[in-house]
Amino acid sequence: MDKYLIRHTEEDILKAAKEVFLEKGMEGARMQEIADKAKINKALLHYYFRSKEKLFRHIFENLLRNVFQPIKNSINQKDDIFVFIETFVDNYTRVLSQNPNLPNFIINEINRNPDRIRELIDPTKLDKNFIQHLIDKSVKSGKIHPVSAEHLLIDMLGMCVFPILSRPIVEYFLFENQSDQYHNFLSERNRHIVDLLTRALTL
Amino acid sequence: MDKYLIRHTEEDILKAAKEVFLEKGMEGARMQEIADKAKINKALLHYYFRSKEKLFRHIFENLLRNVFQPIKNSINQKDDIFVFIETFVDNYTRVLSQNPNLPNFIINEINRNPDRIRELIDPTKLDKNFIQHLIDKSVKSGKIHPVSAEHLLIDMLGMCVFPILSRPIVEYFLFENQSDQYHNFLSERNRHIVDLLTRALTL
DNA sequence: AATTAATTAAACCAATTAGTTAAACTAAAT
DNA sequence: ATTTAGTTTAACTAATTGGTTTAATTAATT
Questions:
Q1: 3-state helix/strand/coil string of chain A
Q2: Is A7 on the interface with B (CB under 8 A)?
Q3: Of the candidates A67, A141, A150, B54, which lies 20 to 30 Å from A60 by C-alpha distance?
Q4: By the CB < 8 Å criterion, does B160 face chain A?
Q5: What is the pLDDT of residue B129?
Q6: Which residue is closest to B28 within chain A, CA to CA?
Q7: Residue A28, CA: closest nucleotide via C1'?
C-alpha cells in the first residue's frame, strides 16, 4: 500500500519551471503552465517560490553556470592550443545538444536585462589571457599563424551555437525540414569545426 | 505660414513599429509605445493598421527580405569560391552593423512561429547547389580542400552573426563593457573571417 | 461654404495574468 | 490523538493591454 508516498514537490517545480522558462523565456512563461507541468496548483507554486521573479532567478542562475562552465573546463590544465580547441568544441557541442534552448534563452534574457550578467562575474570569469598565452607560445615556436584569442573564441562559439540557435531556419533552407538531415549535420559539426580551425591555424 | 503641412503618418507608424518590434519582438511590443513613438494616438494607429497582428506581419515580411537578400546577392554572378566568400561576409557584416537587432528578432519570431517561414519560400530560395558547384570546381582543379556547402554557409553565418547576437555577453566577458573595444573588434571581424576561411580552404 | 478625411481625447470593454486569500482537506510528525 | 506542514479548490484583486467607441476638432477637397 502507498501509505507513505514520497513527495518531491520542490524538485518537480524546478524541473517544470526550467522547461517552461527555457522554452518561453521569463516574459512568455506562465505560472499556470509551470504549476500544471509540475502537477500542482498555482497556490502551492507561490507557497514554495513566493513570486515569478524569485523562481526565475533561481532557475536562471543555475542555467548560466551550465553555459560558462564548459568553457572554463576547456581552459584549465590544457597546454596545447589544438588540444584546447578540440576540448572546447567537443564540450560545447555536447552541452548544446543536451540543452538546445539554452543559447536563445540566455541571449534573450541578457538582452532584456543586461545588468543581470554582472551577478555572475567571479563564478565564471574566463581568462582570455590564458588562451592568448597558449596561442603566443605556438606562434613563437612557429607552429601556427597569429590570431587574437577574442576572435578565436567567437569563431568557435559562433560556429557551435549558430546552427542550434537558428534551427528552424537552417532546417528549412538547408534541409527542406528533414530533421534527420539536420541532426546528421549537427553530428558532423564538431569534427568539421575542429578540422577547419586546425587547417586555418596550422602554418 | 504652415497652412499646408505635409503628413507622413503611415511612414511614421511603420518606422516606429519597425523600431519597437525589432527591439521588443511581437509579444513584447506595445501598441501604445508604437503610437507614442509615431507621435499619434492609439485610435489612429488602429485606424491605419487594424490590428497588432496585421501591423506586425507588414513589418516582419519586409524585414525578412533584408536578411536573406544579401545572401542571394552574394551568390549570383560569382564564379570563384573565394570571391563568393568575401562578398558574402562583407555583405552580411554590413547588413548586420546597420541592423544589429535583426538576427535576434528573426530567430525569436521564427522559433515562436516556425510556420511563418514558409511564407517566403520562393522570394529568397537560396541555391545551395550553386555554392556546392563552386566548391567542387575548385576542389577538382586542386585549389581547395573539399567542404560541404552547408557547413561553409553555417560557418560564415555563425561567425558573422554570433558577436552581434550576443553583444552584451561578448562586451562584458571579453571587453569589460568597453563598447569602443567591442566596436573595434567588430570592425576587424569580416577581414578576420575571410582570412580564416581562406587559410582553412586553401590547399 | 460645405463635405469628406484625418486626428485627438477620453472613456470604456474584455481578456489575460501575477498574486492573494480563506476554508477545507490530507498526510506526516509528535 | 493532536498538531503541523503540505496541498487543493475556488473565488478574488489589481494591473496590463489590445481593441473599440463616441464626440469633438482640424485639415484637405470639392
A1: CCCCCCCCHHHHHHHHHHHHHHHHHHHHCCHHHHHHHCCCCHHHHHHHCCCHHHHHHHHHHHHHHHHHHHHHHHHCCCCCHHHHHHHHHHHHHHHHHHCCCHHHHHHHHHHHCHHHHHHHHHHHCCCHHHHHHHHHHHHHCCCECCCCHHHHHHHHHHHHHHHHHCHHHHHHHHHCCCHHHHHHHHHHHHHHHHHHHHHHHEC
A2: no
A3: A150
A4: yes
A5: 85
A6: A27
A7: C17
Q: Is the CB of A8 under 7 A from strand C?
A: no
For A63-201, CATH gives 1.10.357.10
Q: What is the CATH number of domain A8-50?
A: 1.10.10.60
What's the CATH number for B60-201? 1.10.357
pLDDT at B87 over 80: yes
CB contact under 8 A, B154 and A145: no
Protein side of the strand D interface (CB < 7 A): A 7, 9, 39-44, 47-48; B 3-7, 29-32, 42-43, 46, 50-53
Write out pLDDT tens, residues B26-82: 988 999 999 999 999 898 998 999 889 999 998 998 888 777 776 777 777 678 999
Strand partners, B202: B144
Residues of chain B with CATH 1.10.10.60: 7-50
Which pTM was predicted?
Answer: 0.90
User: Protein footprint on strand C: which nucleotides are under 7 Å from a CB?
Assistant: 6-11, 17-22, 27-28
Q: What is the pLDDT of residues B103-129, one digit of tens each?
A: 999 999 888 888 877 766 554 566 788
What is the rounded distance in angstroms from the CA atom of residue B183 to the CA atom of residue B171? 9
Q: What's the Å distance between residue B167 CA and nucleotide C14 C1'?
A: 40
Residue B8: CB less than 7 A from any atom in strand C: no
Q: Distance between CA atoms of B185 and A128, rounded to whole angstroms?
A: 15
Task: Select from B107, B150, B168 the Cβ nearest to the Cβ of A104.
Answer: B107
How far apart CA B178 and CA A119 sit, in angstroms, is: 18
Q: How is domain B7-50 classified at the CATH fold level?
A: Arc Repressor Mutant, subunit A (1.10.10)
Residue of B nearest to A158 (CA): B158
- The confidence score (pLDDT) of residue B120 equals 62
Contact A153 B174 (CB under 8 A): yes
